[in-house]
Amino acid sequence: MQSTHGDSMSRRHTTTDQAEPLLRITDLRTQFDTDDGVVRAVDGVSFEVNAGETVCLVGESGSGKTVTAESITRLVECPPGEITGRIEFRGENLTTASAARLREIRGAEIAHVFQNPQDALNPVISVGKQVAETVRIHEDVSERAARKRAIDLLDRAEVPDPATTADAYPHELSGGMKQRVLVAAALAGDPDLLVADEPTTALDVTIQAQILDLLADLQREMGMAVLFITHDLGVVARVADRVVVLYAGKVMESAPVDSLFADPGHPYTRALLACLPGRGRESGSIPGDLPSPTDPPTGCRFAPRCPFAVEACTTDSHPSLYPVAQEPDTDRDGAGTTAGDSPDVSTPLSAAPLDGAASRDLETTGDGVNTAHVAACIFHGPDRDAAHLDREVSWTVAEPDGGGR
Ligand code: SF4
């Protein structure tokens, strides 16, 4: 169906300078004063989101994904929170924006869809009225016009029989339908950026796939960028253009999705991938725990869980991001990807590296370095040879029969 706002939305989307990212986050730090000390939930995170693309923030629970996303429009309560760094949205610095300006941006230019639709909907107000109220936040229209627009939005979110469903209360709808209602509300301001925080985690697999398809269709139709937060690498493979891997509040690795799956460069990424079904780690989780957010380890925060850690990993400051990979071989059998396809998550990948099996060439400099693919590990920094001089740091992409490449 056509949006009543299609023209104005298209005009606004095309005003974005394509040379500049839609969202640029630089050295974001979000911390909280607690009785146990200062929790550095996000500690120097930088990444960009371009117009129209999908960037996934991925990592275990507690890695800082949600706090990063909620810091963008200051949904984080401050105090006790404190946000520093620079957040530029279409060139505007949101870190210094007034509360009134942030209220304007929320929903209109940057919309959020959260994990649990039950918590986000008011149980005693019909869903149509809730979407209509969101419409009236963004537009000076009558109740009647807002209801009509709400029904249009529900239709756009593929809610069946939207005129009738608009009069339903949240408890009368399934989890998937409630999430569609929230997607409809998020579209009310014709956002340029949709922040989707684990929007399918509470749903069963079939409904999850439907919601992911819906978001992809809407993104194409509206030209939105999506910042997608998830712990599920299967979802990442399905939706992402680029991936930012977070661990303990820091970026461990950032890469185009096919490059990350074909040739992960950081031990933490490899550990996450090994947890995918059929990829070697039957428990589905990485051994060990996240470090204390009030007292993280010196040096690399993954060191206590990293099978490749050497002494230098625990003595220096956290490693910087370095280029890690050649352009991925798109014709590679088994573990490779083909341009335009989602990465194949069914292939055993990175089971061998964590078991210290076969080796690969670690050279990361010279022609053909994929500078869009970076990882924060001394393994990729200038001191890597010295740090790993006396040990074979080895990993590979395992073929299904167990052979290396
Ligand atoms: S810096 Fe050291 S501990 Fe951290 S991921 Fe790299 S090898 Fe492992």
Secondary-structure map:
Blueprint: H1 6-14, E1 23-34, E2 37-49, E3 54-58, H2 65-72, E4 81-89, E5 92-93, H3 99-108, E6 110-113, H4 117-120, H5 127-138, H6 143-156, H7 162-165, H8 175-187, E7 193-197, H9 205-222, E8 225-230, H10 233-239, E9 242-247, E10 250-256, H11 257-262, H12 267-274, E11 321-326, H13 351-354, E12 369-376, H14 384-387
Parallel strand pairs: 3-8, 3-9, 6-7, 7-8
Antiparallel strand pairs: 1-2, 1-4, 4-5, 9-10, 10-12, 11-12
This protein binds iron/sulfur cluster.
The site of iron/sulfur cluster (SF4) has 13 residues, from loops.
What is the fourth-level CATH superfamily of the largest domain? Answer: P-loop containing nucleotide triphosphate hydrolases
List cofactors, ions and other ligands. iron/sulfur cluster
For the CA atoms, what is the radius of gyration?
A: 22 Å
Strand content: 15-25%
Instruction: Compute the number of strand runs.
Output: 12
Q: Calculate the terminal CA-CA distance, rounded to whole Å.
A: 49 Å
Q: Class by helix and strand content? A: alpha/beta
Which strands sit side by side, in order, in the main sheet?
Answer: 6-7-8-3-9-10-12-11
Uncertain runs:
1-17, 327-340, 345-367, 386-405
Can you tell me the overall shape?
globular
Number of domains: 2
The CATH topology of the largest domain turns out to be Rossmann fold
Which CATH class of the largest domain is shown?
Alpha Beta
Average pLDDT rating: 80
Helix count from the secondary structure assignment: 14
Helix fraction?
A: 25-40%
Which CATH architecture of the largest domain would you pick? 3-Layer(aba) Sandwich
Please summarize the sheet with the most strands.
8 strands, mixed
